Amino acid sequence: MLEPDAALNLVLEAAQAARRADNTETVAVDHSLAGRVLADDVCALSEFPPSPVSMMDGYAVRAPPEGARMASSDEGVIFRVVSSSRAGAAAAGARTVEAGEAAYITTGAPLPPGCDAVVRIEDTLGHKTDAAGLETCFSVPAAVAASIRPGLAVRPAGCDIQVGDLLAAAGTPLRPEDVGSLAMAEIPSVAVTRRPVVGVLSTGDEVAARGAGGREAGGGSATAIGDANRPMLLAAARAAGAVALDLGVVADSRPEVKAALAAAARRCDVLVSTGGVSMGTTTS
Ligand SMILES: Nc1nc2c(c(=O)[nH]1)N[C@H]1C(S)=C(S)[C@@H](COP(=O)(O)OP(=O)(O)OC[C@H]3O[C@@H](n4cnc5c(N)ncnc54)[C@H](O)[C@@H]3O)O[C@H]1N2
Ligand code: MOO
Fold this sequence. Notes:
3 domains, 7 helices, MoeA_linker/N_sf, molybdopterin adenylyltransferase activity
């Protein structure tokens, strides 16, 4: 009799040896990847975000050089609005923003050229518009102006993902967050190992008596029992990421069991049979 660990090792070694050349398939990056196992490490080919983006709704500006003070009046420090950058929209009037100028910006939008900081809208006051209703300028209190540093409320390019970062490793089942990382890095599809087909076969006259004709057919027999192993093992196979193949129930007949095993071997990568393993006259 084999100890369980030794038996498991035998099965795993046989499974390794049986790995087929066509062991991988290409799958699009979507929710169907959950639990699938990558064939290779997947690394980022591009950085994310691809350019600096705003963390706030407000105004993109150029931070003054360190130690420099911006000209302030009673109204505070005034900025001229020269362009805008909205998440998802092409940059409008994307000329370089100079010192003392600003571009209206929404959360997630790329910083226009010349800008390196964002002032939150709620930290601004004194907004003015032209005759057409377009914003021309706004001001910020001197204390807010003094707090403007390069990088304020900005997510730098590549802060989430850098080129070459390992997004997900080969050999481990993909988690939801791995799928998110792959999608974020705009990886269109990945190579995953084929899901093994695990067939489950129950044996036993008493199980077959109920199983063959359904519950009603066998239900009258005092000796028939419901098949508990097969649904449990099929569920376990599926939960482990396999394709579960239901092979039904076979009675305790050597030729029938032999035929069922031979047929099953052609359809499965792994075949699990239960019953008929002891020392009685119907076990083999
Ligand atoms: N002036 C202020 N601006 C912001 C404040 C604030 O207090 N004052 N709060 C910030 C906080 S906190 C949050 S949260 C955001 C919420 O703004 P939005 O609802 O406009 O932002 P989202 O649509 O969630 O976008 C944020 C970020 O995520 C990116 N995004 C959005 N959807 C997806 C998606 N399906 N897949 C990938 N990435 C996505 C989006 O492009 C942005 O970069 O407001 C702050 N602003
Ligand atoms: O509201 Mo935001 O979700 O704090 O980042």
